[in-house]
Structure formats: C-alpha cells, structure tokens
Design a protein that fits this description.
The protein is an all-alpha fold. It contains 21 helices and no strands. It comes from Neovison vison (American mink). This is CDC16 cell division cycle 16 homolog (S. cerevisiae), isoform CRA_h.
C-alpha cells in the first residue's frame, strides 16, 4: 500500500514508464487511493496491449465493479471463461459480476467457490466470497472467508480491515479495534483504516479522539486530488458532522453535513442529521423543514418521525399567540399594546385549558365527588433544550454508515 501522494518514479526505472508491469503497479496505487477513473484508464491501456495480463486482470475487474460497468465486466468474464476455463481469475470475474448486479449473491458464491476450488490460494476470490456474505449480514461466514484471505494475502491490510468491520457490526468493539490496529500497522496512512478507528472511538464515547482520526483521514483524502470518486468519502463527512455535534460545535457540524449533501444529495439520514442540529440550536422552523424532507425520502425513518413531533411542539410553544380579528375589532377604539390586548383576549375568551378546568370543577360540585387534589396543579416549567432532545439518533448517531469501506474487491 502507498499513501496518497504525488507519484514519483525512481531514476532506476526511467526507461520503463511504458513497461506493463510498472503501469499495473501505478494502476494498483490509484485503485487503493480510490482514484478509480485513473486506474481504469491505466488498466485499459494494459488490456489493449495484453488482454490477459495476469497481474492486471484482478485490478481491472475490481475497477469495473467500482465504476459499475456491468456490461463491460459481463463481456470480459465470458471471454475469460471461454478461453481460460481452468484459470481462477475467469470465475472470479463471473462472481464479481453477479456480486455487482445485486440480489445474485447465491450465484456469486457459486462461481467464487469454483475459483477457490481451482486455486485454494487465490486471495481476491476469498475476499469477494466474504463480501457475498457480508452484504447479507452473515457475519460469521464473512469473517471465515476474510480470515482465509488474511492468511493467503500476507502484507495486505484489506482482510484485517474487513474482519474489523464485521466485528464492529456485531458490536464487538474490542476485537474490531484490535484488527483495525493490525491494519493500521500495515497501512498507517490509509484513510479508510483511519476512518474505522475513528468510528470505534466514537462508539466508545471518545469524541476528541474520533475527531482527530476523522480529520487525519480527511487530510489524506485531500492529498489525492480532484479526480477521485468523491461519493466514497460522504460517510466520513457525515461522521465528522456527528462528532462535532457531540462536541457542541454546531456550526462546523452543519458545514460537514452540507458538504456530504453535495456529494450524495438524496440521503435521508443527512437531512435528519441537519434537522437534529437545528433542533439543538433552537431553530425549530428549519428543523421541521429538514425532517419533512428526510421523511419525503424515507417514510419509515422513525427518528425523523419522533423528532418532527417534538420540534413541532417546541415551535408552537415558542410562537407568539395570535390575536384574532374579532378581538381587534372590539378593541380598535383603544390604543393598547400587544401585551394588554393578549390579557384582554384571555378575559373575553379564556384559554381551552381554563375552560376545561371550569367544566371539570362544575361537574365535581354537581356530583358531590371530592377531588383528589384540593388545588389545581401548576404545570412544570419547560425543560431545557438538552433535556428535551436527549433522544439519541437511532441510525445517524451510530454513524450514518458504520463503514466507509464498502465491500469492494
């Protein structure tokens, strides 16, 4: 693994810029740094010169999956199966195709299993095999495949990263932290690993530590350049927003969530997170708007439903009482201020709770029943904003997406 930085070729390979092995190494570097467009450009050049370059094929297949080029991968996999039916990379390509199209995980496992049968030490097939279980939340089977890949791919941090992810999804933060530490020792400047270490720190309530890891990951990402597939980093920006909210840096939190919204505009969780911050700041009108937007995108968002009800109640409580036109007509000959007019309105037309109390009192006197309390109980003072909104975010507070490192090959 090479950290994101400017590519500088050593002088010893000055005459080898066109060498296919060197080009594949550069493509792999771009792949790990999530610059999939540049990686695809380089691997396509290699595939034109050598359509069956052994080291290039796994990287090229992984890039096609990331860029969602299903038709091209379908054509490539069929060509490989026809020409090299006994080569594991052929069946690896078929398995990746079914894994990419969705809802075909059983088919993907069938072909990936065939690839591992042909060559038990073929690491990429084991990683993809683990992904086929991970997308179905079959954590035990996924970890078994990742453990096998870790034994076969010595020096690669990805199997350790994926094992840590599965432990994190099963709420075993101690083991997750252990495997993330191993991945960090292999690739200490990989932003994906940094992000996951920050997620564990967040789940442990270590807000400052989580913020540090997230900011470090963001710095590494900025070093990659402008050609990166930016939507990969949307969860990192959202998670920075969450940790800033925990540290009561509401303005910074809103800024990070809005940046995430630019990358993936139609994300209901991001809208609910922004609404939550507005509610904590006391901007109930804006909070109601954002929660409505979130529910428009995802109707079954229970957190947004709950918070919308609370924000509407608080917004109504904060708004000024409306003085009707009939009251103004009765008092139009007088020059009263607003406070006096409200007082007179209550005298002329008492509030509903007072009317209900009078009706209840009258009924009690008529029936001769003694009330349980001799005096009317005064309402409790309004709780503070922190007490009112102590409800924790079901999904967003545990990270809008627990992992940034989606299951890619």
């Amino acid at each position: 693994y090479n950290k994101p930085s400017e590519t500088v070729l050593p002088e010893s390979v000055d005459g080898l810029q066109e060498n296919l092995d060197v080009v594949v190494s550069l493509a792999e570097r771009h792949y790990y740094n999530c610059d999939f467009k540049m990686c695809y450009k380089l691997t396509s050049v290699v595939m034109e010169k050598d359509p069956f370059h052994a080291n290039c094929l796994p990287v090229h297949i992984g890039t096609l999956v990331e860029l969602n080029k299903a038709n091209e991968l379908f054509y490539l996999s069929h060509k490989l199966v026809d020409l090299y039916p006994s080569n594991p990379v052929s069946w690896f390509a078929v398995g990746c195709y079914y894994l990419m199209v969705g809802h075909k995980n059983e088919h993907a496992r069938r072909y990936l299993s065939k690839a591992t049968t042909l060559e038990k030490t073929y690491g990429p097939a084991w990683v993809a095999y683990g992904h086929s279980f991970a997308v179905e939340s079959e954590h035990d089977q996924a970890m078994a495949a990742y453990f096998t890949a870790a034994q076969l791919m010595k020096g690669c941090h990805l199997p350790m990263l994926y094992i840590g992810l599965e432990y994190g999804l099963t709420n075993n933060s101690k083991l997750a932290e252990r495997f993330f530490g191993q991945a960090l020792s292999i690739a200490p400047e990989d932003p994906f690993v940094m992000h996951e270490v920050g997620v564990v720190a967040f789940q442990n309530g270590e807000w400052k530590t989580a913020e540090k890891w997230f900011l470090d990951a963001l710095e590494k990402i900025k070093a990659i350049g402008n050609e990166v597939t930016v939507d990969k980093w949307e969860p990192l920006l959202n998670n920075l927003g969450h940790v800033c909210r925990k540290l009561k840096k509401y303005a910074e939190a809103l800024d990070y969530h809005r940046q995430a919204l630019v990358l993936i505009p139609q994300n209901a969780s991001t809208y609910s997170a922004i609404g939550y911050i507005h509610s904590l700041m006391g901007n109930f009108e804006n909070a109601v708007d954002y929660f409505h937007t979130a529910l428009g995108l995802r109707r079954d968002d229970t957190f947004s439903v709950t918070m919308l009800g609370h924000c509407i109640e608080m917004y109504i409580g904060d708004s000024e009482a409306y003085i009707g036109a009939d009251i103004k007509d009765k008092l139009k000959c007088y020059d009263f201020d607003v406070h006096t007019m409200k007082t007179l309105k209550n005298i002329i037309s008492p509030p509903w709770d007072f009317r209900e109390f009078e009706v209840e009192k009258q009924t009690t006197e008529e029936t001769g029943l003694a009330p349980l309390e001799t005096s009317r109980k005064t309402p409790d003072p309004r709780p503070s904003l922190e007490e009112t909104f102590e409800i924790e975010m079901n999904e967003s507070d545990m990270m809008l997406e627990t992992s940034m490192s989606d299951h890619s090959t």
